[in-house]
Amino acid sequence: MTRSELFRQMPRTLRSAFGLALGAVLLIACMTLASMSAVAQFATPTQLSLVNSWVDAGFTTSHAMVEDANGIVELRGSIEGGTTGAAFTLPAGYRPATDVYVPVDLCNATKGRLLIQSTGVVTVQAEKSFTDAQCFTSLDGASFAVSATGYTALTLINGWTNAPFGTSNAAFKNIAGGFTSRARSPLPGPIPYHSTCPQAFVPLPMSTFPSICVTPQMGGCTFHPLAS
């Protein structure tokens, strides 16, 4: 290649190098902003002490952590292994007043739940095989209320009653515009509609969220615009 050809290609080479450098800077900036956002959403986490051979899952998820966000305890991360279902004990201040059942995802999108006792002991239970939990148990999205303060009792209808399993009575609360319920699903009545929300808490579109049956089987609750 002649010297003149080298001079002609130099601007193209410089533009290419500048483009690569700019792309690298933008990538680093995006990763930094995403990291800052994640930290902001989980600002003061406490790492959990796992027991019975449970360890943090090796799927690039975060450590098993817990945080109290305005009275709502939120779990984070994922775990695997475990010789028994008892995985960890929540520190004092993060424990529910009564037993709580929270749905979680297990290996290969199978379903399970966490039994969170008032003592703080958290036990993983699988819908199908316990090996699904040992393979992978996600804690992300699992949350519960520490106490009944600020919650309004639901008026149950159609033969539904509060379940006698050491859980709280059915209640709800509006937190930052979002509907939050506490307590296990009531005992079943003859038809599926079990309570009516006050008009101020009725969703505009029909909404559905997951729930748990007596065994770790999964179900769902649906909110209708007609408040039932």
Describe the overall structure.
This protein is α+β, with helices and mostly antiparallel strands. The chain has 2 domains: 46-145, Sandwich (Immunoglobulin-like), CATH 2.60.40.1830; 152-223, no CATH class. Helices cover 20% and strands 32% of the residues. The protein is built from 2 helices and 18 strands. The chain has helices at 3-41, 130-135; strands at residues 46-47, 54-56, 65-69, 72-76, 78-81, 86-89, 100-105, 111-116, 121-126, 137-138, 143-145, 152-153, 155-156, 171-175, 178-182, 195-196, 207-212, 218-223. It has a 4-stranded antiparallel sheet, with no helix packed on it. Strands 6-9-8-7 form a 4-stranded antiparallel sheet. It is globular, with a radius of gyration of 24 Å. The protein starts with a helix and ends in a 5-residue tail after the last strand. Residues 20-40 and 179-186 have low confidence and may be disordered.
